[in-house]
Amino acid sequence: MKYYPMPTSQSTAQAVILANGDFPSHPIPKAILHHNQKKLVCCDGAANHLLDQMLIPQIIIGDCDSLSLENQIKYEKIIIKIPEQNTNDLTKAVNYCKNNAVSSLIILGATGKREDHTIANISLLAKYISIIEIITMITDHGFFHVIQHPSQFQSIIGQQVSLFSVQPTAISTTNLKYPLDQQNLLYWWQGTLNESLSDHFDIQVNSPLIVYQAFVNPL
């Protein structure tokens, strides 16, 4: 059974992606952004803000429609321009990581701003699990993991937990306040607002499932 620890300010992965949502302000994602700068893949929509913070990513990727002309010229050696519009910039960044043999990935800045972008980015986690083995999406309020096999999660008593199933699949849990026993979640709201009863909880599942855990100390 795979074990998923809660992220800390020292968390790392083979690559970190910064998407064009709300720029990280919670201490944990903010620290991860700073100390993983050398393995940072930045979506072009977030690049102007990142560069204003004097942080230089390894790669800037996307269609570059929102990157300032000044920065396009200044950082042309680290820009990968992909003009096609069939995928969003986050997916372009994830595909870049896949093509560079990345198996563990942290995604920052993927929520906030427009709600349709937030929903799309979260739901895409279920697609990314087929190409990246371990993915953690960290926001200013909590973090998402995506699994497709039985897994155990580090937690704390009282932590808020939500489960999002993208397709009907039998789900069983232990150490959650509202346990599931071979239950299908047909709607996204059905698995929300649960609560951890221990320092860990287990989930039995065999299809993609998105697991959200709220930060114990939110902003």
Write the layout of secondary structure elements.
Blueprint: E1 2-4, E2 15-18, H1 27-35, E3 40-43, H2 44-52, E4 59-62, H3 69-74, E5 79-81, H4 89-99, E6 104-108, H5 115-123, H6 125-128, E7 134-138, E8 142-147, E9 151-154, E10 160-165, E11 170-174, E12 183-184, E13 194-195, E14 200-204, E15 209-214
Parallel strand pairs: 1-9, 2-3, 2-6, 3-4, 4-5, 6-7
Antiparallel strand pairs: 7-8, 8-15, 9-14, 10-13, 10-15, 11-12, 11-14
Order of H and E elements: EEHEHEHEHEHHEEEEEEEEE
Specify Rg, calculated over alpha carbons.
Answer: 17 Å
Number of domains: 2
- Which structural class best describes the helix and strand composition? alpha/beta
What is the fourth-level CATH superfamily of the largest domain? Thiamin pyrophosphokinase, catalytic domain
Examine the secondary-structure arrangement and name the CATH architecture of the largest domain: 3-Layer(aba) Sandwich
The CATH class of the largest domain: Alpha Beta
Strand order, largest beta sheet? 5-4-3-2-6-7-8-15-10-13
Instruction: Tell me the major beta sheet.
Output: 10 strands, mixed
Strand content: 25-35%
Mean of pLDDT = 92
What's the tally of helices? 6
Structural account:
- The structure is a single chain.
- The protein is built from 6 helices and 15 strands.
- The chain has helices at residues 27-35, 44-52, 69-74, 89-99, 115-123, 125-128, and strands at residues 2-4, 15-18, 40-43, 59-62, 79-81, 104-108, 134-138, 142-147, 151-154, 160-165, 170-174, 183-184, 194-195, 200-204, 209-214.
- A 10-stranded mixed sheet has the order 5-4-3-2-6-7-8-15-10-13, sandwiched between helices. Strands 1-9-14-11-12 form a 5-stranded mixed sheet, with no helix packed on it.
- Strand 11 (170-174) and strand 12 form a beta hairpin.
- The longest helix is centred in the middle third of the chain and has 11 residues, at 89-99.
- With 219 residues, the chain is of the alpha/beta class.
- The chain has 2 domains: 1-145, Rossmann fold, CATH 3.40.50; 148-219, Jelly Rolls (Sandwich).
- Residues 142-212 form the Thiamin pyrophosphokinase-like substrate-binding domain.
